[in-house]
Amino acid sequence: MAAPMWKSALDDYVKTEIDSMAPDVVKLLTDNTISLLELIEGLGKYLISEETSERGRVVKLLAEILHLIPTDKLNATENELLVAYLCDRLKDHHSIQPPSLHGLLALCHSKNLPEGCPEKICRSIFSEVQTQTLSQGDRRIAYNIFSVLLTTSLPELQKIGSDFVLGYIQAMDAEKDPRNLVIAFHCATTIIRNFQLGVFVEEMFEVVSCYFPVDFTPPPGDPNGVTKEDLILGLRGCLAASGQFGQYCCPLLLEKLSSDVTSAKVDSLRTLEAAAKVYGSKCLLEYRTSLFGCIKREVFGSGDEELEAAALLALTAMTTTFSQETIITDSQTCAEEFVSEIWNECSRYLGDDDLRLMVPTCRLLCAVAAGSEVTCCKVLSLVVTRLVQIFYSHPQASDRKAVMESIHSFLRVTRQIRSEKVKKSISEFQNSVYAVVMSAISESNVQLRVAAVQCLDTFLQLPLTLAVTDPPVMAKVLVDRAFTDEDKDVRFSCCSVLSTMAKTDAATLKSVVLPCLLEKLRTKPMDVDGSDPEQHHMVFTALAAISVTTEILSLVVKELVSYLSCLAQMSTGEPDVQSVASCLSVITTSAVSRPDMLTVLYSHTLPELFSLLVSMATDSSHHNSCVHNEDVLQHLTTCVRQIVVHLNEKRLTELCRCLTQLYLHNETAYLSCTPSTPFYPLQTSSPWQQTELITLASPVICSCPVEVLESSLSDYSQQLWSLSLQSDHKLTRRTAAKCLAGLINRWPTGESLLNFLQSSIDTINSVLGSDTVEGRKRAALNQLIWFTKALAMRGHSKAKDFISMLTNLLDDQSIGELAATGFEIILGDFPDVLSKPLGANIRIMYKQRIFVENVGRLKEGFASSPPATKKNYLICLSHMLKILPKQVLLSELPPLFPLMVHSLLCDDLDLQLSTMTILCDLTHDAPDVISKHVDTLVPQLLQLCTHPSSMKIRIKALRCISALCVLPVHLLLPYKTRVVRSLEPVLDDRKRLVRREAVTARSEWCLIGDPS
Amino acid sequence: MTGTLDNANPTVYEASKERQTTPDDENDDIVDKFDNREVFDLIRNINDPEHPLTLEELNVVENSKVKVDDDNGYVAIEFTPTIPHCSMATLIGLSIRVKLLRALPTRFKVDVTITPGSHASEEAVNKQLADKERVTAALENSHLLEVWPGYPAEVKSPILSTGTVKSANVVRIESMQKGATRETEETPKR
């Protein structure tokens, strides 16, 4: 718009109701085509117009312009002038007030607002505007003005003093809109905190407290997003903003606490918790007895967890407040007096006869103890001995368990407060607690024992000063319990106590526990009569549990590796080998995140493991050794992988160089011993004991920086390629394929990769096309699948070709099914290869992309394929559906649903199972899609409920039937009688697990359509 | 159910753990017979009519008082009301019966009785529980249905009455819709 044009546009704006002018004018202002002065002059004739509506329109325009220009556009004089003008307009006709306020809000945001203006704005609003008569949106503008000014010019507003307070109280009075209240509470909090309220304390309190407790339910689908919680927190901020409110607020809280409404009580208690510190002990002292009465009532009788938790936190806050008061009356501090008062009231519940109220009483006392150091000491000195007495005087296990748990809760509180004083009171009761816990550990009731062991765990974390003789005795008892206790929970709890002990008392652990465990490690279960192999297994759990410090970790791992090398001498049939290997992997997994432990594992454990395995593989007399076992290797590979993932780049590069030397060039410098025969794990001619060791190196090769591998990349890929196709050993073929996939995934884009891929495709095609034995075809297909995964993950352009090769194979009678299951590999996640931690090259949403690109082709393929291979398409689809995220599924589902129903009719167990799993989930997520097919689903599922050979199918089918109950009742009612009747024979299924599902499903169907 | 409870503060017992699944359970070739624990599992989670607690937690039913004879198709259950004059005894007994009627194969004959000596009008209750017509009527009773596990707690314990705040609360926050209507009633200042 040209400069002169805006004046005519202005006429239109004022005369009509078209509001689109402001942005154009702002453009002119910002590129300095017109100046502010010119603008005002232009507006002039309307600003002084006799017509109220014209004045209103033009002030509105001015306000809009002010909002749109940059906040630093106006200088101080211009701001002052505009503020004066707009404030003056507040005195004008009532219809001009809203646009004026709107303009003032814009000026409040201005960067160059001169001193004096904020005061002027506020005073004008207070004197001229009666907020209660404005509409919601305009009131909101007024609150926003206060809110902005309180943030930007607080010191200036403070000078206005009580006039401001009074003005605000009047402005906020009787506000009812939740959106405005959120802002109003915020302003009120700032005012209460920063202004001298003077004579207006009570008025200020009244104007906010009248909303307490907040009772507000947002309308459904509320676009404003104001929640009850926002209002509660805003109001709580106000109430807890000044200590002067205490005298008014405490009676209010007491009144609400005596009501029957749970939410009001919870709100009151939380407000008390937030405000206790601000109100101070002087105010609380006056009300403490009645407040405590209310809190006690809630803890003793409410049965509502939320309410009880709020009550206890409020009590803790009160105690903390009292503890900060230093004045001493009658030789007691305020806090001690409070504790005594509570104790006088509560001690009778800790009497001898009825223990019903003991637990809630202990909760109260715990909350008091958590308040401060002083109260903690005082409560401990009163309670602990009493509890110990109660324990001894009540022989019943359930009572004793309750006592033990109460003691435990006191110990937990004590653990949080660390100070010399508390340490002293711990030393007073530690011996009696120790004695009682140890006696409880040998009780016959299982739950009591668990409680005692858990209590001991916390006890050991306290700063103790036990007699020298105690820890060894305790350690022996714990080890003994860990192995011989009949209950699993007790055994595992004992292990976690040992873990605590490793941190707090390493000396005892090394001198008593460790030798004991190591002895048990070397004692074969069959050597001891009647010992349970599962108990022998505890030794591994215990060893893993205590490996929490670097020192103990290195001792344990060393022992385990040496035990492993000892076992390796034996041939087969050693269950311990697997346990040792899995124990090592557990220890490594939990230790790698600690740098010092990682160093131990990297520099000692790794070389030892490699030395052991290589020497076993190269010595032909050990070719029967029990370490040549897939599971053992799997566990040890996990160790390597965990370490590799946490190594820094320098160490990783170093490790990769060493292993490349070892694997490719038979350079054994990395090992601690020289193998008796050469080690060539990558050659097809080597024995499988050597070749299977690729699995150990693959995490390193696949995750190390590509530059390091550069020179050996082609060696690795060629050799792995031939191994994966030609080796006679299944594990070797599989791991070689995986390892190669890991390399391809990170191979830099370029000629060399393309060449390699091209030659691979040719080989695979020729193998698949020829009439070779099926075994070779399968190996080639497996390699193809892994190649596809590696390329699809990184989003390589060749991936499409590979996928279409795979989908073409679905029609193959012999290997079509294998190709279909290959999609599970392609879309699945594997921790051991091509995973994020191992640095794989993963393009986001690659799974969705594969699904979207291929789903059409699969559907067509299903329609056109011969009956014998139709199943393969369904299998392929079901793998895709299983892995895809739900959101994607829901949009793609409707057209695929008929295919899923087909899958149910197929005679393939896995396919039926996976289809039903998807179906079960979908019933909850997309009931409307399922509803359309109820008529085909119900009969088919009922038939599967009596599947003769697989209980898994029966269970899944019953779950699906029970899931159907979420559908609308009118769809289900026609089937109710039929389902209930058909499920009756299933109630008598030969398997208990099936019967259980049948009961659930039938009960739910019985209730369909019932009036309740 | 009136406002007063027969036994307002009952002793709560520990619930037993979930039954562990054994390898035999997962073997399709082995036949699992109905045993005491299985039938106990069916009834232990029934909610008490008075409390938000299960019959097991109140020790009304115990594993040792469930007898199952799979071969002869017979189940005998004894239950113990929390107090000897419990007015809910019949209701509890019927709940157990109805549950088993739906969850056990029809070849089982089920007897539900009160543990001898644990209730003031033991014989009368036992007689009612053995009455076929009464049990059939119970199946139609919507109140009994509410005792099933799986219903929200509010439904189960209507005794927790909700009152109102007795306070001088002057201003209540309006809902948004009300706030909107208010704008139309503006009165001009001048």
From TrEMBL, chain A:
Q: What are the GO BP annotations of this UniProt entry?
A: DNA repair; iron-sulfur cluster assembly; protein maturation
| UniProt cross-references to Gene3D superfamilies, sorted A to Z | Leucine-rich Repeat Variant
Position of the signal peptide: none
Which keywords describe this protein according to UniProt? Cytoplasm, Cytoskeleton, DNA damage, DNA repair, Nucleus, Repeat
Q: Is Nucleus set as a keyword in this record?
A: yes
One protein family per Pfam: MMS19_C
What's in the GO CC field?
Answer: cytosolic [4Fe-4S] assembly targeting complex; nucleus; spindle
Q: Start and end of every MMS19 C-terminal domain? A: 540-964
* Database matches in InterPro entries: ARM-like, ARM-type_fold, MMS19, MMS19_C, MMS19_N
What range(s) does the MMS19 N-terminal domain occupy?
Answer: 40-300
Tell where it localizes.
Cytoplasm, Cytoskeleton, Spindle; Nucleus
Does DNA repair appear among the keywords? yes
Q: What does this protein do?
A: Key component of the cytosolic iron-sulfur protein assembly (CIA) complex, a multiprotein complex that mediates the incorporation of iron-sulfur cluster into apoproteins specifically involved in DNA metabolism and genomic integrity. In the CIA complex, MMS19 acts as an adapter between early-acting CIA components and a subset of cellular target iron-sulfur proteins.
Subunit structure, as described in the record:
Component of the CIA complex.
Q: Spell out the family assignment given in the record's similarity comment.
A: Belongs to the MET18/MMS19 family.
Protein name listed in UniProt: MMS19 nucleotide excision repair protein
Its source organism is: Mizuhopecten yessoensis
UniProtKB/TrEMBL annotation, chain B:
One annotated GO biological process: chromosome segregation
Residue ranges of domain MIP18 family-like in the record? 37-113
Identify this protein by name: Mitotic spindle-associated MMXD complex subunit MIP18
Q: Which SUPFAM superfamilies match?
A: Fe-S cluster assembly (FSCA) domain-like
Annotated region Disordered: where?
Answer: 1-29
Q: Please provide, in alphabetical order, the Gene Ontology terms of the cellular component aspect for this entry.
A: cytosolic [4Fe-4S] assembly targeting complex
PANTHER family listed in its UniProt record = CYTOSOLIC IRON-SULFUR ASSEMBLY COMPONENT 2B, CYTOSOLIC IRON-SULFUR ASSEMBLY COMPONENT 2B-RELATED
> What family does the entry list?
Belongs to the MIP18 family.
Signal peptide residues on this chain, from the entry's feature table: none
Which keywords annotate this record? Chromosome partition
State the organism named in the record: Mizuhopecten yessoensis
Q: Where is the composition biased (Polar residues)?
A: 1-10
